């Protein structure tokens, strides 16, 4: 009976002691240096563990360990918050630097690629230094040695961190492609909606908006090329344009169309149309597909979004003969100059 009363008395005191220590640990400021806190928690755990050995049928060591784990989790969360704030500050500095007026180089051109490389190097260096510093302070090696924590199965695996970083990078890259694609798409959509296609004259040249679109994509290529490698692209077929033009001219009554279609029997003509339609639907292009971390893949994603917008805008309009010819001139211009930016012609 005396031992039981002593156990209850000690348990009450330990409960108060743990509560006071918990309040004190929670009030400890985040200084990014946890050596003193680690030593204090080590002593705290040792004292409660010693009481457990003196009094049988008690488990004060686990109570102390719960407080140690709670303190470690709190410091990890504080370190994550500090890293986020540091990254946001670094990104803000880069954003302000990019928005500032640029100084021309000796040849009169703006050193965009050099500036991007500089900003990227600084951003990566600052982020890596912050992560290394925080990771060094969070590795409670002294605590592991003192508490003899050999089982580290509860630690976060390295691949979880790398996968999370890659997923965040993929989301950021997809957002960039969608944003830039929407910017170019807005120009194309407004150029189609605001033009009088029924009353326009005979086309003399490509419209100015198409040149603007090409300039915008060229600028994006320079910016992206400063950060990413080229990537893989399919070889451009030398005769694809001739095949496409020949098939279009034949179907629209161009030179040689009578002899071409007259050579097909009705059944052969039907089979040919079915085969071409099946090929058309089987090669459907996915517009908003995730892009790879290469320059060609990023620009391909932007171009696909832009051309899809142009296609849908044209599909909803009514054209006169000259209006249709103007669209054909613009399309030929884009076909001539855009292929070098994309992975697949």
TrEMBL record:
InterPro entries cross-referenced by the UniProt entry: Vps51 (IPR014812)
Biased composition (Basic and acidic residues): 230-242
Record GO cellular component, one term: EARP complex
Keyword Transport tagged: yes
Main location: Golgi
Transmembrane parts of this sequence: none
Source taxon at top rank: Eukaryota
Keywords: Golgi apparatus, Lipid transport, Protein transport, Transport
Intracellular or extracellular location(s): Golgi apparatus, trans-Golgi network
Region entry Disordered, spans: 225-259
GO biological process assignments: endocytic recycling; Golgi organization; Golgi vesicle transport; lipid transport; lysosomal transport; protein transport; retrograde transport, endosome to Golgi
Function summary: Acts as component of the GARP complex that is involved in retrograde transport from early and late endosomes to the trans-Golgi network (TGN).
UniProt record similarity statement: Belongs to the VPS51 family.
Subunit: Component of the Golgi-associated retrograde protein (GARP) complex.
Stated name of the protein: Vacuolar protein sorting-associated protein 51 homolog
